[in-house]
C-alpha cells in the first residue's frame, strides 16, 4: 500500500526558540499505522533535553507575562487562522501518523482551531474581584495570575486537538509550556509548535519534547521543581503515576483520563436518532476516543430492532487507509491495540455473546466493525476501555437497572442518553455519575463546554470558562481602608 508523501514537518526538539537534535543525536521512528512502515525519524529527548526544555519555559515566563491580554489574544487568533488556512496539510499529517479517515482529521483541525479562537477571547476576560472584610475596615483585591511553567502531556488519539486544548489556555493565561506528545504521534505537535512560533510567540513560550522514553523525560521535568502545573491527557494508569510524582512538588494538576461510556437507549427513544448517535459515539476516531460509547444499555423492548439496525450500519462502513476516498474506518494505532481488540471479542464469545456483525480476523491493523449482543455481565469488554470499533449490547427493563449498570465502573467521563421524555432525561442526567452527558446526542465536546470527568476519569476541565482557570492562580491584596 503506498501512502501520500509526508508534508514538510520539523523532526527536532523545539527548546527556547531553537530547533535542535536531542543531546547525543538519538532519534526514534514514527510509523504509519496503515502500512506499518516508518514515516520518518524524530529526535529522542533524554533527561538533559527535558531539563533544558523546562528551563527554557521558565526563562520565557517574563516575556510572555509582558504581552498584554490583547497581544496574547491576537497571537492566538493568528494561530487559529493559520490552522484553518492549512487544514488540508495538517489533516493529512494527522491521518498519516494516527490513521483516522481524512474527513475526521479535517474535523479535528477545525475543532483545534475553535479552541485557539475561544481562548483568544478568554485571554481578555481574566479578571478578579473586590470585596470588603466583614469589619468593613479592609478592602480585598482578588487577582488571577499565570500559574507558571506548565508541562503538557498528550495522547496519540487526537494528536492536534489534545495539544490545542492545553496550549491555547496556557498562552491565554500567560503560561509558558513544555509539550510532550505521545511517541506514536509527535509530528502534528511539532508542526503545531512551528505554526505557533511563526505566529509570533516569544521564544521559549512553547517547547516540544519528543521522546520514546516518556517516564524518564517527564520524571525529570516534574522533579526539577520548575514546572508549576501538569496537564495530562492519557490513561488512568499513567495519570495515577504522574499524580503521585507531582505530589512531591505540590504541583497543580489537570487530568483527562480514561472513560467507559454507557449509551442508554430508553424505550421511548427515537430509534433513528439513537442509531445515528450510536454510530457517531462508537465509530468516531475508529472507536479510539475517551468519549467512545463503550457499553450499549438498551431497553429490552427496543433491543432487537436497535441491534439489527446498528449492526447493518456498522457492517456497511468502508474500512480502508484514512487517506483513501470514502474511508470511514482506518487502522488501529498499533499491533497491541489489534491484539486487545481480538482478546475482547474472543472473551465475549467464550461467555456466550452473539455476533451481529464483524468478529472476523484483522488484516494488518485493520479490524472489522463488530456488534455483539447477549453480552453477559462480567465480560471483559464491559469493564475495560475497548478503544476500537466494537459495540457490546446489553439490555434493561427498569430505569434504575440502567443507571446501576451505567454507574458500575470506576470511570465517569461521559454518558449518552436517548429518550423523548424530558423529565426522564433530566432525571438520568442527575443520577448518572459522569462529567458529561449527551442527551439525544452522540457528541458532547466543543470549545465552550467544560470537558472532563469524575471518579477515575480525571480532575479539572478543558474548554469553557473553566479551561483557563486551570492555568491561573488566585492571589489577593488586603488593603486597610
Ligand atoms: P497513555 O497513558 O499510554 O499515554 C499518554 C501520554 O503519557 C503519552 O504522551 C505517553 O508518552 C505518556 N506516558 C506514558 N507513560 C508515561 C510515564 N510512565 N510517565 C510519563 N508519561 C508517560 O495513553 P494513550 O494510549 O496515549 O492514550 C489513550 C488513553 O488516553 C485512553 O485511556 C483515553 O481514554 C485517554 N484519553 C482521555 C481523554 C480525555 O480527555 N479524558 C482524551 C483522549 C484520550
TrEMBL record:
Keywords, ordered alphabetically: Oxidoreductase
Biological-process GO terms, alphabetical: gamma-aminobutyric acid catabolic process
The keyword Oxidoreductase is assigned to this record: yes
Active-site residues (renumbered): 256
GO MF entry, a single one: succinate-semialdehyde dehydrogenase (NAD+) activity
Domain spans labelled Aldehyde dehydrogenase: 19-474
Family under the similarity heading: Belongs to the aldehyde dehydrogenase family.
Protein name in the entry: NAD-dependent succinate-semialdehyde dehydrogenase
Organism: Phytohabitans rumicis
The organism's taxonomic lineage, starting at the top: Bacteria, Bacillati, Actinomycetota, Actinomycetes, Micromonosporales
